[in-house]
Amino acid sequence: MKLTFWGAAQQVTGSMFLLExxxxxxxxxxxxxxxxxxxxxxxxxxxxxxxxPFDPSLINTVLLTHxxxxxxxNIPNLYKEGFEGRVVCTEPTMALTSLLLQDAANLHQKRxxxxxxxxxxxxxxxxxxxxxxxxxxxxxxxxMENFVPVTFGQxxxxxxxxxxxxxxxxxxxxxxxxxxxxxxxxxxxxxxFSGDIGRANYPLLTDPQPIPQVDYLICESTYGNxxxxxxVAPMDALADVIKRTCVDIPxxxxxxxxxxxxxxxxxxxxxxxxxxxxxPYIKVxxxxxxxxxxxxxxQRFVRMLNKEARDFQEDNDLLFDFENLIYLESQDASxxxxxxxxxxxxxxxxxxxxxxxxxxxxxxxxGNPYATILMIxxxxxxxxxxxxxxxxxTISIRGKQLPVLANIEKIDVFSGHGDQNDLIRFVKxxxxxxxxGLFLVHGEQQSMAEFQSKIQQFGYNxxxxxxxxxxxEL
Length: 474
Known about the structure:
Elements: E1 2-7, E2 16-21, E3 24-28, H1 38-48, E4 61-63, H2 69-72, H3 75-80, E5 86-90, H4 91-116, H5 137-144, E6 147-150, E7 156-159, E8 162-168, E9 176-184, E10 187-193, E11 216-220, H6 234-247, E12 252-256, H7 262-277, E13 283-287, H8 289-300, H9 307-316, E14 325-327, H10 331-336, E15 344-348, H11 358-365, E16 371-375, H12 384-389, E17 394-397, E18 400-403, E19 407-410, H13 420-427, E20 437-441, H14 445-456, E21 463-464, E22 471-473
Parallel strand pairs: 3-4, 4-5, 5-6, 10-11, 11-20, 12-15, 12-16, 13-14, 13-15, 16-19, 20-21
Antiparallel strand pairs: 1-2, 1-22, 2-3, 7-8, 8-9, 9-10, 17-18
Protein name: MBL fold metallo-hydrolase
Domain Beta-Casp: 263-388
Domain Metallo-beta-lactamase: 13-236
C-alpha cells in the first residue's frame, strides 16, 4: 500500500492525498491550492499537462473530509479530466460543497467573461488563454450527481478490501475525520485522516470526536505553534466589542467573515446575545448571498448540531433569524448600507478582506474614526486583512491608497481551527507504541516544525513532514 502527498504538504491549502492498494486508488480530499499564484499554477499545470499530477481516470473513489474549498475545490476538474467514480462524504458536506463549488464556478464564469469578452478583441487579437483549472456550472452539476452521502460512525465499503468510517471533527457542519481500513496480504491496516480539527464548545458544532487506534495518522497542523488568545465565551467577547463600538459611541462595526461556517456562528451568537442581554436595537446586515444559502443548510441539519443549538431551536424556533437582522441579496442593497447613518453591524465576506463585498464596506469606512473593523480569524500574509492586522497606516483598495483611520480589532473565539493544545489532545488518543507513522500536513512550515518538536516530547518519534509528491510505503 502506498500513500502520496499531493497537496497541503508543507503548506496550508490544496489538501489532496492519494492512497493506493493493489489496483484501487482513493483520493482523500481534492482541494484548491491558494498558496500558488496564477503564474505558479500555470507553470505547474503545463509541466503536468493537467491540473493534477496523476491521471484522474485511474482514481476509483474520492473521500471528502469537509466542504471548504481548499479541500473540495478541484473536484469538478477531476471529472473534467476523466474521473468517473464517486465522492463519499457526509450529507451536510454534500449540501455545503454544492454551494461552494457553484460559487467558485460563478466566479470563474465572471473572470472568463472579463478575459474573453464577447469575441475577438479589436485588431484581430485572439482571446486570452483560459486557465486550466477553471470550471463552470455544468461541471459542478456533473460532479454533484456523483456524490454519495454517508452517516457518521457507519462503516462504508468502497472496495472488496477497503472500507471507511467518518467521525465528527467539529470545524464545520458535516466535517469529518476519516479512518480507512485496508485488508492487504491477510493483514488489516488503519489509516486516519484528521481533516481540519475543530475546537471544543464552538458555537453550533459538536466537539471533535477521537478516532480509534490507527496504524498511520495524517494530521493537520494549522495552529501547530499557536494557542488561541481569547479564553472568554464567544458571546461575551462579541458583546464587549459591540458595546464599545456601537453603544458607547454611535459607530459601526464591520466584521469580515467567511460565508460558510464563521457567519453562521456569528449570527447564532448574536441571536442568543440579543435574547439574553437585551442589547439596544442595532441593525445587523448580513451581506453575502452564499452565507444566506449556507445558513439555510445549517438550519436544515439542526439535528446534527450541538445540544445547545438543538435546545435553542426547540425553545425559539429559529437559530439565526432575529428582528434586527437584514439579509442583503443584491449589490445595490449592499452599496446602500453606506447611506445608513445609525449604529450598525455589517457581516460580509471574505474573512481575509480579499475579494467579496466586504472590500466595498472596508473602503467606505476605513477613513471613519467611528468605525471599527473586527477581524475574527486567520488572514494570509499579503491579504488586506493581514495588512490591517499588522497596523499599516495606509492600504490600497481597488487601486486607491487610503489612510487607515478606522479602529482595527481582533478576537479569535470564532476561529474554527483547534489550537496547539487541541491538536495535541487529538494526537494523544493514539498509543505512540502502536502508531507506525504520523504525518503532519495542512500548515505553514514553521507551524509544522514546532508541532513536530512538541509532540515528540510525548513519545511520538515517527513524525514526518512530507514534501509534495513524496510517496510512503505503508
